[in-house]
Write a structure and sequence with these properties.
single chain; 403 residues; 12 strands; globular; binds pyridoxal-5'-phosphate
C-alpha cells in the first residue's frame, strides 16, 4: 500500500465513531466503533492481518503499530465498540478470558498486596488466585459474597481490591452486587467483576459503579462458539495500565479473531433476549419434573438469588444448573440420551451445551473443594442456545422418561 493511502486509513481509524452515547445498546452493537467514513466503502470492518505497520511518526513504544501492542485497526474498532456497550471510557481485548483476568489482576495487585475474592469463582480464576498468587507474593482471602457484613473482618491494611462474578459458575448465584460496590468505595478498593455469565445485555457493571468489568468474550459477547477472547472495560487510565501489562505479558488477540468477535457481538441483544426467555422456560419445566431434585436459576421465584437478580438485571441469563434424584449415574445417562444439547464444556453460544462441571470447568478442584462450594458430582450445567425452546423441552421430556 502507498504511504499516502496508509495515512488516509490511519486518519479514518482515528475518527472511528465514538460511543453513540444516546443510542440504545442494540444500536451501539451495530454502529459504535465502526470506521466513519467506511474504509474503501466496506460496510463490514475489513481484517488488517498484518503483524506490523509502516512507521507513521508514532511517539513511544506503546504507540508503534504491531499486533502484540493491541493497536491494529481491528483492535481499535473493537475496543471502541466494547467501551460503548458497557458505557466505560475505554476497553481492551486479550487472547482469552483467562488472559484478561490474569493480566488485570496482575495490573491491580503487586507483591505485598491483599485481595478479597468471592469464594465460588470460575475454576480457572479460583485456581489462579489460590494456587499461583503465592508465587507472586500476593495475599488473598475468600469471602462469602452473600454475607457482606462478614467482609470487614477480612480487611487488612494492604487490601487493595475485591473480585466477584455477576452470576457464579455453575451454581448461577447472584450476590448483593450493590453492597460489593458500596464496600469497595467505602474502603478505597478497586472493584473487579467477571460479567461473562450475565453479558452486557443483562447487566452493565460500570454503570453500577464497578471499576473494571471483565469478560470471557469467548461466551455471550461472541456467541458463536468459534473463538477464545477476553475483554476488560473501565476508566481510561486503568485500561491504559492493563494495556501496558498486556503488552509485556503478550496475551494479545489476533486481528482475525478481533474481526470475528466484532461480527459476533452485533447480534448479542437478539441472542440474549431469546436465551433469557428460553432458559427460564426450561428451568420452569425442569423444576416441575418429578425426576429433578433441584434447579439453580435466578429467574425462578424459588431461587434465593431471585429478588436481587430481578432488581439488578434486564433478564436472568441463559445458564442454569440442576441435579437429578439419581445423582451422578442419572446425570450421565441423561446427557447420553439427549439429542440436541451437545456434551461439551464452555457456554454462551447459539448451540445448547450440557456438561457435568465436576468433569470440565471444575475438574481442577479436589472433590473436597468442589463439595465445599456446593458442586456435587451429579450437578449438570446447561448453556441454553437459540434452538426452539419447544424442541429442547421435548428432548428433555423424552430423555428424562428413560433414565
Ligand atoms: C465465568 C468465566 N470467566 C472466565 C472464563 C475463562 O474464559 P476463557 O476460556 O475465554 O479463557 C470462563 C470460561 O469458561 C468463565 O466461565
Amino acid at each position: 500500500m502507498k504511504r499516502r493511502e496508509l495515512v488516509i486509513i490511519l486518519k479514518i481509524i482515528k475518527e472511528y465513531k465514538l460511543s453513540l452515547k444516546n443510542n440504545s445498546l442494540q444500536t451501539k452493537l451495530i454502529h459504535a466503533g465502526e470506521p466513519e467514513p467506511k474504509i474503501l466503502g466496506s460496510v463490514s470492518m475489513p481484517v488488517f492481518q498484518s503483524s506490523t505497520f509502516e512507521y507513521a511518526g508514532e511517539k513511544g513504544y506503546d504507540a508503534v503499530r504491531y499486533i502484540r501492542l493491541n493497536n491494529t485497526p481491528n483492535h481499535i474498532a473493537l475496543h471502541k465498540k466494547l467501551a460503548a456497550i458497557e458505557n466505560g471510557e475505554a476497553a481492551i481485548v486479550a487472547a482469552s478470558g483467562m488472559a484478561i483476568i490474569s493480566t488485570t489482576l496482575l495490573t491491580v495487585l503487586k507483591a505485598g498486596d491483599h485481595l478479597l475474592a468471592q469464594d465460588n469463582l470460575y475454576g480457572g480464576t479460583y485456581d489462579l488466585i489460590t494456587k499461583d498468587f503465592e508465587n507472586y507474593g500476593i495475599e488473598y482471602d475468600l469471602v462469602d459474597a452473600n454475607d457482606p457484613a462478614s467482609w470487614k473482618s477480612k480487611l487488612k491494611p494492604n487490601t487493595k481490591a475485591v473480585y466477584v462474578e455477576t452470576i457464579t459458575n455453575p451454581l448461577v448465584e447472584v450476590c448483593d452486587l450493590k453492597s460489593v460496590v458500596k464496600f469497595a468505595k467505602e474502603n478505597n478498593l478497586v472493584s473487579m467483576i467477571d460479567n461473562t455469565f450475565a453479558s452486557p445485555y443483562n447487566y452493565r457493571p460500570i454503570e453500577a459503579g464497578f471499576d473494571i468489568s471483565l469478560h470471557s468474550a469467548t461466551k455471550y459477547l461472541n456467541g458463536h462458539t468459534d473463538l477464545v477472547a477476553g475483554a476488560a472495560i473501565g476508566k481510561a487510565d486503568m485500561i491504559e495500565r492493563i494495556v501496558h501489562k498486556l503488552n509485556h505479558l503478550g496475551g494479545t488477540l489476533d486481528p482475525h479473531t478481533c474481526f470475528l468477535l466484532q461480527r459476533g457481538m452485533k447480534t448479542m441483544v437478539l441472542r440474549m433476549k431469546y436465551q433469557n426467555e428460553s432458559a427460564l422456560r426450561i428451568a420452569q419445566y425442569l423444576e416441575n419434573h418429578p425426576s429433578v431434585k433441584k434447579v439453580n436459576y435466578p429467574g425462578l421465584e424459588s431461587n434465593p438469588s431471585h429478588t436481587v437478580a430481578k432488581e439488578l438485571f434486564e433478564g436472568f441469563g441463559g445458564m442454569l444448573s440442576f441435579e437429578l434424584n439419581g445423582g451422578k449415574d442419572a446425570a450421565e445417562k441423561l446427557i447420553s440420551l439427549l439429542e440436541l444439547p451437545i456434551h461439551a464444556p464452555s457456554l454462551g453460544g447459539v448451540e445448547t451445551l450440557i456438561t457435568r462441571p465436576a468433569t470440565t470447568s471444575h475438574a481442577g478442584l479436589s472433590t473436597e473443594e468442589r463439595e465445599k462450594t456446593g458442586i456435587s458430582e451429579g450437578l449438570i450445567r446447561l448453556s441454553v442456545g437459540i434452538e426452539s425452546t419447544e424442541d429442547l423441552i421435548e428432548d428433555f421430556k423424552g430423555a428424562l422418561k428413560n433414565i
